[in-house]
DNA sequence: CCTCATTCCTTGAAGCCTAAACTATTCCAG
DNA sequence: CTGGAATAGTTTAGGCTTCAAGGAATGAGG
């Protein structure tokens, strides 16, 4: 196809290598932190990140959430939430409750045990994150937070629009 | 100092809320981008991100990589790589080759078909990332890259030391 | 009333992922 | 040489995840 190796190299990437390197670094940071959090959740609480995330979502919504709402907040598929909720219900951490006036929907709520358990996990989790980010100064954290805000907007704008929201 | 709402807010959590918010935003950005990339890889190439990542690792190592090396570079378990390699080998994109002098190890290499296929996917992938990050200015990208470098170091320092490296 | 689109959830198939147990091979110290 | 530690990969059980197909209930028009 191409004339020689140099030509191929020169025109293949129109200069998008910077964005790629940024993305790879972003991914590495997230993967490192996430992996450590998963590992500690397993070690200290014998649980998983998705379970923790689901409990966290319910903890922020004392009135309860439908499976669909949980699915949107966690950014995972609805079928995924079904299985997750089934396991957490079996462990007695959450409960399914029919929503009055709509027999399709159900509300998920933390049980008392679930609230207790999440409080323990949540406190540890917060400490872990602080520990992992301890080497980043408050000023840097502020700058990162702001820049990641821009990044989020950039990505959202490039994404296909959601059905409703 | 004093006993008012401000004080209460200030001491209840030892001040780790900032780190937590930063982490959640970092996670959101990564999840958004990653989800879109997964979706496009499926739509345009009928493949997945782990497959793409494995091909990328092999593309950067023309001499081939052992399963263990791939496992370390992708930061996934070794058992995971076994299955991934099996599927990619079945599709004819990579090949297993015995390593001379060590009957335990094998080298994974891209086949000609694998190289062709990865080149197509890689070009598209690079464009997607550039598209998603188009709303972040070059200056901001530079700052982000640097700050994420600090973050990576901070996390690595807080992590349990690896066996070897 | 119907009917049809929509919403909420579940199921099933397939793939990704980990930890832990296991096999085979290599390396090393005695 | 030989026994045991270390290394390379595989396997297994269980959980996470998606997509696609489908069942049940709701709601809006005719």
UniProtKB/TrEMBL annotation, chains A, B:
Pfam families assigned to the protein according to its UniProt record, in alphabetical order: MarR_2
DNA-binding keyword on record: yes
Alphabetized InterPro entries for the sequence: HTH_MarR-typ, MarR/SlyA-like, Tscrpt_reg_MarR-type_CS
Keyword field: DNA-binding, Transcription, Transcription regulation
Native species: Falsiroseomonas tokyonensis
Protein name, entry field: MarR family winged helix-turn-helix transcriptional regulator
The HTH marR-type domain, residue ranges: 19-153
Keyword DNA-binding found: yes
